[in-house]
UniProtKB/TrEMBL annotation:
Keywords tagged on the record: Metal-binding
Signal sequence range: none
Name assigned to this protein: GTP cyclohydrolase 1 type 2 homolog
Annotated organism of origin: Pedobacter albus
Entries under NCBIfam families matching the protein: YbgI_SA1388
Pfam family, one: DUF34_NIF3
Keyword Oxidoreductase appears in the UniProt entry: no
Origin superkingdom: Bacteria
Family: Belongs to the GTP cyclohydrolase I type 2/NIF3 family.
InterPro entries referenced in this protein's UniProt entry, alphabetically: DUF34/NIF3 (IPR002678), DUF34/NIF3_bac (IPR017221), DUF34/NIF3_sf (IPR036069), N-reg_PII/ATP_PRibTrfase_C (IPR015867)
Length: 365
């Protein structure tokens, strides 16, 4: 298949505009029109992973972590990043990363952690704002239905579990058609008054082009009046971390044993166990210390994540138990998540899970 077919699908699962500013998700090496016959999936892209892709005749590597985070000023093989990119280019292997945009999805990295631990009724811990926009337009009464339906079909009008949401208010529009115009109603050179409906509806920022095209194609007027507003509203289905409930409450030791077993963690660094049972649990794959305040505010009894620094453990202040299971350990099932989704969409496409553990951290136990 064409590379664009699979990357477009991945970006429908986790739109690129949902990634953090520092991130570099998306197509890193390769061209959208390249023919792809097999893909290898891993958490990280290392030289070992590229060698595995070569050995297995995979000309696409899909990873969670981008091999290139910052701009490369030179490409001479001096660093492992440069060597990976050079080897991929020499062997015509495309590199694609799906990182914090997948972290932020309600069915993404953190949902996979919740599934692994049996956490139920999970929801986003820290929803993202500034992802929604509002469209306001004005339409003759008789054509309002067709315009609304076109906007809804393009992705507008979704609020939570509700679809086809809009607000409609009646009013009077005025205009005077000038020379060279072809007015749908009224006559050139004369001010016209038309009974119109003001339509308001929301949409996701990445759907703006589709929504605007739907508006312009369905609206009867030659010149369509509309306004687009950026909204600060939180999008509850997109954001960092998740929080949910264990099927039954557990004491601290039993909980840590469960986490260690289910997440295949060799070591768990944690704060002091508390007298209370653990029932509500927050999770964040990768480096999640920035979400500690949100986990406490959500009433979590425990927070599972990675990369906490020494002094940050003090910030728990006995509100909850921090369980740092390691960066790789917290995200290792992301590869399985990607394969499950891709196989469901493209059942005849050859996609393989790496045989290598790319965790750069070793444990002396």
């Amino acid at each position: 298949m064409k590379l664009a077919l699979i990357t477009n699908y991945l970006e429908s699962l986790a739109p690129l505009n949902y990634q953090e500013d520092y991130d570099n998700s998306g197509l890193i090496v390769g061209h959208p029109n390249d023919e792809i016959h097999a893909a290898l999936v891993a958490l990280d892209c290392t030289e070992q992973i590229v060698d595995e892709a070569i050995a297995k005749s995979c000309n696409l590597i899909i990873t969670h972590h981008p091999i290139v985070f910052k701009g490369l000023k030179k490409l001479n093989g001096k660093t492992y990043v440069e060597r990976v990119v050079l080897k991929a280019i020499r062997h015509n292997i495309a590199l694609y990363a799906i990182h914090t945009n997948l972290d932020h999805m309600a069915n993404g990295v953190n949902a996979r952690i919740c599934r692994q631990l049996g956490i139920q009724q999970a929801k986003i811990l820290s929803p993202k704002g500034n992802l929604l926009k509002k469209l306001v337009t004005f339409c003759p009464e008789a054509q309002t239905g067709q315009v609304r339906d076109a906007l809804f079909a393009a992705g507008a009008g979704h609020i939570g579990n509700y679809s086809e949401c809009s607000f409609n208010g009646a009013g009077t529009g005025t205009f005077k058609a000038g020379e060279g115009s072809d007015p749908f109603v009224g006559e050139r050179g004369t001010q016209h008054h038309e009974a119109e409906i003001r339509i308001e509806t929301v949409f996701k920022g990445q759907d703006e082009r589709k929504v605007l095209l739907a508006l312009l194609e369905s609206h009867p007027y030659e010149e369509v009046a509309y306004d687009i507003y950026a909204l600060a509203n939180k999008l509850e289905t997109v954001g960092a971390g998740m929080v949910g409930w264990l099927p039954q409450e557990m004491d601290g030791h039993d909980f840590l044993s469960l986490v260690k077993d289910r997440m295949q963690a060799k070591v768990i660094r944690h704060t002091a166990l508390l007298p209370k049972k653990i029932k509500k649990v927050a999770v964040c794959g990768g480096s999640g210390s920035f979400l500690l305040k949100e986990a406490i505010a959500a009433g979590a009894d425990a927070f599972i994540t990675a990369d906490f620094k020494y002094h940050e453990f003090f910030d728990a202040e006995q509100h909850l138990v921090i369980a740092d299971i390691g960066h790789y350990e917290s995200e290792q099932f992301t590869s399985n998540l990607l394969i499950e989704n891709i196989q469901e969409k493209f059942p005849n496409f050859a996609i393989r899970l790496t045989e290598h553990n790319t965790n750069p951290i070793n444990y002396f136990i």
